[in-house]
Amino acid sequence: MTLLFIDGFDHYANSAQMRDCDYVIGSSPNFVVSSSYARFTGLGVKGDEYSGYAIKDLGVNKSTLYFGAAIKKQGAGIPTLSSTNCFLEFQDESNVDQVRLTVNPDYGINAYQGDNTLLGSSANNVIRNQRWEYFEVKVIISATVGEVTARVNGVQVLNLTSQDTKNGSDYIRKFRLSYIYGADPMYFDDLYVDDAQFHGDCRIRVFMPDSISTTNNSFTASAGNKDDCVNEIGSNEDTDYIYSDTLNHKQGFGITTGTLGTVKGIQVKQHCRLDEAGSRKIKALCRSNSTDYTGTETDFITSDWHFETEIWETDPDDSSAWTQTKLEAAEFGLEITT
């Protein structure tokens, strides 16, 4: 596996809906989803004030992690020099901070071990005030051969090796987005997490269903057309939806992407819940070249709205890169497997 998670934040109606994707959100309204915080079109998020944070559980433990996101330090405040002044933290499965990253008063990057030990600093002025930067970092957790390597807009600004980055277990499971203490909000957009490589400056685009599969078409619409029931940005939950209570039922949809650059992968997200007693699991569905492919079976679906996620980095039919032609010819959806 390489790509673990991507998020452009465009499919959330609000920060509360981010919780449906295993984010833990700080006190509302200090972590906010809005078009005002987007890098391009669509939506972005803002961490503001001490309680403005979002913690994402990746659902898997990794000793090495690559993280990238567009960030923008918004406002004229000068960052406070402190290990707790962190816009990005990596935590283990027990919520113990392993590595913290801050913007210092000279607009450089400081890296700290989770016990507040300074591991090292970049040169000054690698983060410009009130401008979007694409920030990437590689973190290896180890008491002896730990690593923190950071890049801004593709240029390496920090290279710390043979470090003690272990403050808890041997792994990272979560990342925490926050603001800069004493220095106004931090905006985030176009985020990826990988366990094998940097991807460089990326843009996450959202494509909603606009056609219905004629092959996999077993679900029922709550009203109107099925694709119209699942094409809202963000999800309108119980307002309109598709549903089924039958094992092995499948539902697929087509998308229109328009012109694309290099495609790193496609992430299929199901916003779903259980509306009856019993047990259900699903798998994400991709139909390519007239063949059905399914992802990993989910945990049991609960009665609360929740996002289930599957990434296909390449076309599962031929294991080659996605293109506009392939994506627009494929269908994506879900299958009830339990």
Layout of helices and strands:
Blueprint: E1 3-7, H1 15-18, E2 23-25, E3 31-34, E4 44-47, E5 54-62, E6 64-73, E7 86-91, E8 97-103, E9 109-113, E10 118-121, E11 132-140, E12 146-152, E13 155-163, E14 172-177, E15 186-194, E16 211-217, E17 220-221, H2 226-229, E18 242-243, E19 250-254, E20 266-272, E21 282-288, E22 291-294, E23 306-312, H3 324-329, E24 331-336
Antiparallel strand pairs: 1-15, 2-5, 3-4, 4-15, 5-14, 6-11, 6-15, 7-8, 7-14, 8-9, 9-10, 11-12, 12-13, 16-19, 17-18, 19-24, 20-23, 21-22, 21-24
**Rg result:** 21 Å
CATH topology of the largest domain: Jelly Rolls
Structural class comes to mainly beta
Helix-strand topology string = EHEEEEEEEEEEEEEEEEHEEEEEEHE
CATH architecture of the largest domain: Sandwich
Shape: elongated
Helix tally equals 3
Provide a brief overview of the structure.
This protein has about 350 residues and is mainly beta. It has helices at about 15-20, 225-230, 325-330; strands at about 5, 25, 30-35, 45, 55-60, 65-75, 85-90, 95-105, 110-115, 120, 130-140, 145-150, 155-165, 170-175, 185-195, 210-215, 220, 240-245, 250-255, 265-270, 280-290, 290-295, 305-310, 330-335.
